[in-house]
Specification:
Number of helices: 6
Number of domains: 1
Helix content: over 70%
Order of helices and strands: HHHHHH
Radius of gyration: 19 Å
Strand content: under 5%
Number of strands: 0
Low-confidence stretches: none
Shape: elongated
Largest sheet: none
Length: about 160
Protein backbone atom coordinates (compact mmCIF):
# COMPACT_ATOMS: atom_id res chain seq x y z
CA UNK A 1 0.00 0.00 0.00
CA UNK A 2 1.85 3.06 -1.23
CA UNK A 3 1.74 6.17 0.94
CA UNK A 4 0.63 4.26 4.05
CA UNK A 5 1.24 6.06 7.34
CA UNK A 6 4.05 4.80 9.57
CA UNK A 7 1.62 3.23 12.07
CA UNK A 8 -0.06 0.93 9.51
CA UNK A 9 2.84 -1.23 8.39
CA UNK A 10 4.71 1.72 6.92
CA UNK A 11 7.77 1.13 9.12
CA UNK A 12 7.93 -2.52 8.06
CA UNK A 13 7.58 -1.46 4.44
CA UNK A 14 10.36 1.09 4.90
CA UNK A 15 12.67 -1.55 6.33
CA UNK A 16 11.99 -3.74 3.27
CA UNK A 17 12.41 -0.91 0.77
CA UNK A 18 15.60 -1.45 -1.30
CA UNK A 19 16.07 2.30 -1.83
CA UNK A 20 15.97 2.94 1.91
CA UNK A 21 18.13 -0.07 2.74
CA UNK A 22 20.81 0.65 0.17
CA UNK A 23 20.98 4.31 1.24
CA UNK A 24 21.07 3.61 4.98
CA UNK A 25 23.59 0.75 4.75
CA UNK A 26 25.83 2.76 2.39
CA UNK A 27 25.80 5.77 4.70
CA UNK A 28 26.50 3.81 7.87
CA UNK A 29 29.11 1.58 6.22
CA UNK A 30 31.00 4.62 4.91
CA UNK A 31 30.94 6.21 8.37
CA UNK A 32 32.06 2.92 9.96
CA UNK A 33 34.97 2.60 7.51
CA UNK A 34 35.89 6.22 8.29
CA UNK A 35 35.98 5.40 12.03
CA UNK A 36 38.14 2.30 11.43
CA UNK A 37 40.57 4.33 9.32
CA UNK A 38 40.67 6.99 12.04
CA UNK A 39 41.43 4.34 14.67
CA UNK A 40 44.18 2.80 12.54
CA UNK A 41 45.81 6.21 12.03
CA UNK A 42 45.43 7.18 15.71
CA UNK A 43 43.25 10.16 14.76
CA UNK A 44 40.41 8.76 16.85
CA UNK A 45 41.49 8.71 20.47
CA UNK A 46 38.34 8.11 22.50
CA UNK A 47 34.93 6.49 22.44
CA UNK A 48 33.45 9.95 21.94
CA UNK A 49 35.62 10.43 18.82
CA UNK A 50 34.40 7.08 17.47
CA UNK A 51 30.76 7.99 18.08
CA UNK A 52 31.21 11.45 16.52
CA UNK A 53 32.81 9.87 13.46
CA UNK A 54 30.04 7.28 13.16
CA UNK A 55 27.22 9.79 13.57
CA UNK A 56 28.40 13.27 12.69
CA UNK A 57 31.84 14.01 11.24
CA UNK A 58 32.27 14.85 7.59
CA UNK A 59 35.23 14.54 5.27
CA UNK A 60 37.64 11.66 5.01
CA UNK A 61 37.70 8.30 3.29
CA UNK A 62 35.20 7.25 2.00
CA UNK A 63 32.70 10.00 1.32
CA UNK A 64 29.44 9.09 3.06
CA UNK A 65 27.72 11.92 1.15
CA UNK A 66 28.63 10.26 -2.14
CA UNK A 67 27.80 6.78 -0.86
CA UNK A 68 24.35 7.97 0.19
CA UNK A 69 23.36 9.87 -2.95
CA UNK A 70 24.79 7.31 -5.38
CA UNK A 71 22.97 4.54 -3.48
CA UNK A 72 19.69 6.45 -3.69
CA UNK A 73 20.08 7.30 -7.38
CA UNK A 74 21.21 3.81 -8.40
CA UNK A 75 18.51 2.02 -6.44
CA UNK A 76 15.82 4.33 -7.84
CA UNK A 77 17.13 3.62 -11.35
CA UNK A 78 16.98 -0.12 -10.66
CA UNK A 79 13.52 -0.10 -9.05
CA UNK A 80 11.69 2.73 -10.87
CA UNK A 81 13.64 3.01 -14.10
CA UNK A 82 15.64 5.87 -15.52
CA UNK A 83 12.56 7.45 -17.15
CA UNK A 84 10.92 8.25 -13.81
CA UNK A 85 10.78 11.80 -12.53
CA UNK A 86 12.06 10.61 -9.16
CA UNK A 87 15.19 9.24 -10.83
CA UNK A 88 15.78 12.56 -12.61
CA UNK A 89 15.35 14.47 -9.35
CA UNK A 90 17.69 12.09 -7.57
CA UNK A 91 20.32 12.27 -10.30
CA UNK A 92 20.51 16.06 -10.22
CA UNK A 93 20.39 16.13 -6.43
CA UNK A 94 23.31 13.68 -6.40
CA UNK A 95 25.29 15.82 -8.81
CA UNK A 96 24.82 18.86 -6.56
CA UNK A 97 25.82 16.96 -3.41
CA UNK A 98 28.91 15.46 -5.02
CA UNK A 99 29.94 18.78 -6.57
CA UNK A 100 29.49 20.46 -3.20
CA UNK A 101 31.58 17.77 -1.45
CA UNK A 102 34.37 18.11 -4.01
CA UNK A 103 34.37 21.83 -4.57
CA UNK A 104 32.59 24.23 -2.27
CA UNK A 105 33.05 22.37 1.02
CA UNK A 106 36.66 21.51 0.24
CA UNK A 107 37.50 25.09 -0.73
CA UNK A 108 35.76 26.43 2.38
CA UNK A 109 37.75 24.01 4.53
CA UNK A 110 41.03 25.06 2.94
CA UNK A 111 40.19 28.72 3.49
CA UNK A 112 39.23 28.07 7.11
CA UNK A 113 42.57 26.31 7.68
CA UNK A 114 44.43 29.31 6.23
CA UNK A 115 42.42 31.73 8.37
CA UNK A 116 43.10 29.66 11.49
CA UNK A 117 46.84 29.60 10.74
CA UNK A 118 46.81 33.38 10.27
CA UNK A 119 44.87 33.83 13.50
CA UNK A 120 47.35 31.62 15.35
CA UNK A 121 50.23 33.75 14.07
CA UNK A 122 48.45 36.92 15.23
CA UNK A 123 47.73 35.37 18.60
CA UNK A 124 51.34 34.23 19.02
CA UNK A 125 52.94 37.50 17.86
CA UNK A 126 50.51 40.10 19.15
CA UNK A 127 48.85 38.24 22.02
CA UNK A 128 45.43 38.82 20.50
CA UNK A 129 43.09 36.01 21.54
CA UNK A 130 40.97 34.67 18.68
CA UNK A 131 38.48 31.88 18.28
CA UNK A 132 39.27 29.48 15.45
CA UNK A 133 36.96 29.24 12.46
CA UNK A 134 35.24 25.88 12.00
CA UNK A 135 37.04 23.87 9.34
CA UNK A 136 34.59 22.17 7.01
CA UNK A 137 35.99 18.95 5.67
CA UNK A 138 35.29 18.42 2.00
CA UNK A 139 36.44 15.45 -0.01
CA UNK A 140 39.12 14.57 -2.50
CA UNK A 141 38.23 12.83 -5.74
CA UNK A 142 39.38 9.38 -4.51
CA UNK A 143 37.21 9.75 -1.37
CA UNK A 144 34.18 10.63 -3.50
CA UNK A 145 34.92 7.80 -5.94
CA UNK A 146 35.19 5.16 -3.21
CA UNK A 147 32.01 6.45 -1.55
CA UNK A 148 30.18 6.38 -4.86
CA UNK A 149 31.34 2.83 -5.58
CA UNK A 150 30.21 1.78 -2.12
CA UNK A 151 26.74 3.23 -2.74
CA UNK A 152 26.56 1.69 -6.21
CA UNK A 153 27.44 -1.82 -5.05
CA UNK A 154 25.12 -1.75 -2.03
CA UNK A 155 22.32 -0.64 -4.38
CA UNK A 156 23.04 -3.54 -6.71
CA UNK A 157 23.00 -5.92 -3.77
CA UNK A 158 19.73 -4.67 -2.26
CA UNK A 159 17.91 -4.23 -5.56
CA UNK A 160 18.96 -7.33 -7.47
CA UNK A 161 19.67 -10.03 -4.87
Amino acid sequence: MQGAPIGSGGMQDLLRNPVFLSAAVSLFTAQFIKAVIGLSRNKVKSLRDILETLLWRTGGMPSSHSALVVAITTSIALTEGTRSSVFTLSLFFSMIVIRDALGVRRAAGMQARAINALQQDLEDKLAIPMRPVKEIHGHTFPQVLVGGLLGFFFSLAFCTL
